[in-house]
Amino acid sequence: MGGEGDDYPAAYCRQVCHLLRCVRKVYDRRMAAETLLLVGDELGRYGFPTGHPLGSDRQGAFLASAVAKGLDKRVAIGAPRLATREELQRFHSREHLHWVEIRSRLGDGYLDYGDTPAFPGCYEIAATVAGTALEGLERVMAGDAVRTFQPIGGLHHARRSRAAGFCVFNDLGVVIDSLRKRFGVARIGYVDIDVHHGDGIYYPYETDPDLIVVDIHEDGNFIFPGTGHAHESGANEAEGTKLNLPLPPGAGDREFFAAWERGLAHLHHLKPQFLILQAGADGLAGDPLADLRYTPAVHARVTRDLRKLADEQCEGRLMAFGGGGYELSNLAAAWTAVLGELT
Ligand SMILES: [Zn+2]
After folding, report:
1. Which residues does 337 contact at the CB level (< 8 Å), separation at least 6?
2. What is residue 154's three-state secondary structure?
3. How many CB atoms neighbour CB 263 within 10 A?
4. If you measure from the C-alpha of residue 188 to the centroid of ligand 1, how many angstroms do you get, rounded to a whole number?
5. Mind listing the pLDDT tens digit of every residue in the chain (343 residues)?
6. Distance 15 CA to ligand 1 centre (A)
7. How many Cβ atoms sit within 10 Å of the Cβ of residue 138?
8. Ligand 1 centroid to 324 CA: how many Å?
9. How far is the CA of 54 from the centre of ligand 1 (A)?
C-alpha cells in the first residue's frame, strides 16, 4: 500500500506546473496585447533618394535587432495605413497638402528649402507615416493596446504649412490634434529626446497651456533648426508649460540624466493625461549629423520612467516614435532599448 501517498506529491506537482503554464499563457497574451508595434513595408518606405542621410533602410535595421532579441514575440503587430485628407488637415493646412501633392506627382525638386527632396509618391508615403500613427492612436483609445511604438515616425520638424528637416507631414501633430478633436483628450505630455529641437511641435503649440513639452536636444546655436533655447518656455497663458533643455556639443549620458531629472519633475508637476515620446536616436555617439555622445541607456531610462508615469497618471497610455537617427546600428540599439522597456 501507500501508492496513493507516494504519487500524491508527483500528481500535485504536475497540477501546479499545468496551472503555472496556463497562467503564463494568459499573462503572455495580455502582455502581447498591451504593446502594439507598428511596422510594415509601406511604412518602411519613408526615406529619400540615394545619398540622403534618411534612407528607407532604417525600419529593416531596427527590426533585425528587435527580432534577434525576441521582442517581436512580446508585442502585437499593427499594420500601416494611409491618413485621409481630413485626418491630415486636423494639423496641416490645405495649402501644404496641395503643395506636397503637386511635388509628389512631378517627383522632383524639394518640398522645403533644400533638405527634404520630393520623389514620386512622396505624398502617399508621408501620409502613411501619419495614418499609421492614427492607427496606433485608435487602437489605444479603443483599449486594444495600452502603448505603441512606431519606429518610422516622429517627424517633428514639419509645420502646419510646410515641410522641413526630412519631415513632410508631422504625424505627432496629427496625433495631438486628433486626441483633442476626435477623442476629447486635451492635456498631453510631449517628450522629445531627438538631438534636434522639435520645432514643429513647440511653435504650433507655443501658446497652448495643455500641451506640456519636455525637449532635450543639442544647443540650437550649433545645430539645425537653431531653436529650442532655455528661455523658450511657452507664451501667454502657456508660459511655463514647455521645458527646452539644450545641451552643449559633446554632452553624454551624465548631462542628459541631469536634464531628464528636471524634465520628469516637470511632467509630474503638470499632470498630463496621455504621453507621447519622440525617441530620436541621433543623440547617440557617432551620428553623422550631430555631436552628442549618448548611449542607448538614455532611451531605456526615459521609456522606463514614462511607462511608470503613464501607468500612474495616464491609464498607461503612451505612444513612442523613432524620430531621427542616421547611423543604422545606433538607431537599432536605441529603438530596441525603447521597445524592450515598453514590453
Ligand atoms: Zn533629429
Report:
1. 296, 297, 299, 300, 303
2. coil
3. 23
4. 21
5. 444 444 555 666 566 556 556 555 544 444 446 999 999 999 999 999 889 999 999 999 999 999 999 999 999 999 999 999 999 999 999 999 999 999 999 999 999 999 999 999 999 999 999 999 999 999 999 999 999 999 999 999 999 999 999 999 999 999 999 999 999 999 999 999 999 999 999 999 999 999 999 999 999 999 999 999 999 999 999 999 999 999 999 999 999 999 999 999 999 999 999 999 999 999 999 999 999 999 999 999 999 999 999 999 999 999 999 999 999 999 999 999 999 999 9
6. 54
7. 16
8. 4
9. 10
Burial of 97 (0-12, 13-18, 19+ CB in 10 A): middle
Q: How far is the CA of 331 from the centre of ligand 1 (A)?
A: 11
The contacts of residue 321 (CB under 8 Å, 6+ apart) are 133, 149, 150, 151, 153, 154, 171, 172, 276, 277, 278, 279
Tell how far the Cα of 312 is from the centroid of ligand 1, in angstroms.
29
Distance 60 CA to ligand 1 centre (A): 19
Å from CA of 322 to ligand 1 middle: 10
